[in-house]
Amino acid sequence: MRIAVVLLGAALLAGCGVDGAPETPTMHTTIGVGTGGVFGATHVTKGPFTITLGTGL
């Protein structure tokens, strides 16, 4: 039980930015035209993590 309380407290502190300044996510979209047709992708980045949704990139 004590470990669960410590882990929950650490998660709450990390979630509210107490351990540092909160990072704002960034997003950009790429659209292009090639011989295969139109392609596009959306990139969302927050800190060291990037998620890309789309085709051709």
Shape: elongated
Q: What is the strand arrangement across the widest sheet? A: 1-2-3
- Strands, total number: 3
Distance between the termini: 47 Å
Give the biggest beta sheet. 3 strands, antiparallel
Find the structural class using helix and strand composition: alpha+beta
On the 0-100 scale, what is the average pLDDT?
78
Order of helices and strands: HEEE
Radius of gyration: 19 Å
Name the poorly predicted regions: none
In a nutshell, what does this entry contain?
With 57 residues, the chain is of the alpha+beta class. The protein contains 1 helix and 3 strands.
Describe the model.
This protein is an alpha+beta fold and 57 residues long. 25% of the residues lie in helices and 44% in strands. The chain has a domain at 23-57. The longest helix is centred in the first third of the chain and has 14 residues, at 2-15. 0% of the residues are buried. A three-stranded antiparallel sheet has the order 1-2-3, with no helix packed on it. The protein has one helix and three strands.
